[in-house]
Predict the 3D structure of the following.
Amino acid sequence: MDESEIRVVVAWHTALNDGDVDRVVALPHPDVEIGGPRGTAHGADVLREWVGRANIRLDPQRVFRRAETVVVEQAAEWREAGTGVVASHDTVAAVFVVRDERIARLARYPDLAAALAAAGLDGGDEVRPDEPAES
């Protein structure tokens, strides 16, 4: 059993929520593909800029995995710059593709159903904390 993909994704969330921008951009490949509501872009510099601008906290809720693809349902909080006051919150989801223990692609989706569909995963791919993931 190899759960390195999940460990990488959890480490990315931890770095983001700790405000460790250098670690957030070190975990992906240098030419990481980043997708979201504003389109698709590539590169660690784009990711660094997003982290600085987004003022977001993403707490993983449910995790789904098949091979190198990990889908995470996330409790998201956007905070006001300067004050840190929560401006809004929602439940979103992201698809991560992890290769060679580095994030090759990450894309945000408005909800879990959209992320699972985009990744070609389903409820049978859910990884529960008390159950090992299948390779």
